[in-house]
C-alpha cells in the first residue's frame, strides 16, 4: 500500500483499502499465464505433498518491488523446497523454476543439490510431521496452527545419506511428479524408507504410526490388540501365566474403558466390566453429567491390575500398551 499509493492502512477507510487492494490485484496479478504475467505466485494453502495445487493460482510479472515484504531475488530462483508455514500438517514440494510466493511460505535452499529429493521426501513423511506437531508447532489446536521461522532449523536431518538412499528417493519423487503414481499410493513406502533412514526402532515407528491412527471410536479389536501387546511385553518378567480381560461400553454415561490383568490362577470374580461401571458411576456422582476429558487410573489388587482410561483410541494403541507394560516392568525390577 505504501509503495504503490504512498498511503498507510491506518489513514484510510476500510472501503478505500478494499478498493486499493482490488485495483492492485487487477494491475499486478492475472488468473491466466500470459505475457507479461508469466510467473506463478502461490500461498501456503496451495502447497500439497510434492506438488502445487492449481486451484486459485495466480500469475504475476517479474518485477514485484511494490509487493508487501518481497524477499531477495535468489530465493525465488533456481532449485528450492517450499513448505507450509500455516496449517495442520507439514507439506513440501520441490520447485526448480522461478516462482513467487507469499510470506506464509517457507523456503529451503540447500548447499548440495543432490540432497533435494531426500529432504523433500523427509519433509512429506509422517515422521517429520510428527516431530513438528509434538515439538515445534504453535496453536496446534487452533485454526491458524503454524511453525515459526526458526522451527525448520530444528527439524532433525538424517546424517547417513548415501548414494543408494539418494537414488531411491530420487526415483520416488520423480514418479510422483510425473504422475506415474500418487502420493497416496506411495506414502506408506515413503514413511517406511524415512523410518529406516532415521534408524527408528520398531516401538519408535509404532509410536509415530499410532499418533496418526485413523480410528476415532474405541473398538473391541483395539482393546484386544492392546491386551496382547501388553502381555507379550511383560510375560518374560512373570513367574507364571497371566490372563487378560477388557471392557468398554459406549452406552455408559462417561467414556471409560478398562483392561484387567490377572497373574497366576486367581479365582476372584471381580470382572473388569464391574470395575468400569463402578468407576463410571462414581465419577458421574462427582462431576455431574459432563464430558470426561481424560482418565488414566490403575487399581492394584494382590495379583490383579486394573487399567482404566478414557476411550480415546490413542490411549489404547500398541505403543501405549508397550509403555504401560514397561511401567509395570520397572516396578517389578525395582522390587527385586
Q: Outline of this structure?
A:
The chain is an alpha+beta fold and 336 residues long. It has helices spanning 2-5, 14-28, 73-76, 116-123, 126-136, 151-154, 163-177, 183-197, 202-211, 220-234, 272-287, 318-335, and strands at 29-30, 39-42, 47-48, 51-52, 58-60, 80-84, 92-95, 100-101, 105-108, 242-248, 256-263, 296-300, 304-310. The chain is elongated.
| Helical content band | 40-55%
Q: Give the oligomer, counting copies of the same chain as homo and different chains as hetero.
A: single chain
Main pleated sheet: 4 strands, mixed
**Helix and strand string, N-terminal first?**
HHEEEEEHEEEEHHHHHHHEEHEEH
Mean pLDDT: 85
Computed structural class: alpha+beta
Describe the structure.
With 336 residues, this protein is α+β, with helices and mostly antiparallel strands. Helices cover 40% and strands 16% of the residues. It has twelve helices and 13 strands. It has helices at residues 2-5, 14-28, 73-76, 116-123, 126-136, 151-154, 163-177, 183-197, 202-211, 220-234, 272-287, 318-335; strands spanning 29-30, 39-42, 47-48, 51-52, 58-60, 80-84, 92-95, 100-101, 105-108, 242-248, 256-263, 296-300, 304-310. Strands 1-5-2-8 form a four-stranded mixed β-sheet. A four-stranded antiparallel β-sheet has the order 10-11-13-12, sandwiched between helices. Strands 7-6-9 form a three-stranded antiparallel β-sheet, with helices on one face. Helix 7 (163-177) runs antiparallel to helix 8 (183-197). The longest helix is centred in the C-terminal third of the chain and has 18 residues, at 318-335. It is elongated and about 85 Å long. The relative contact order is 0.08. Mean pLDDT is 85; it is low at 289-293.
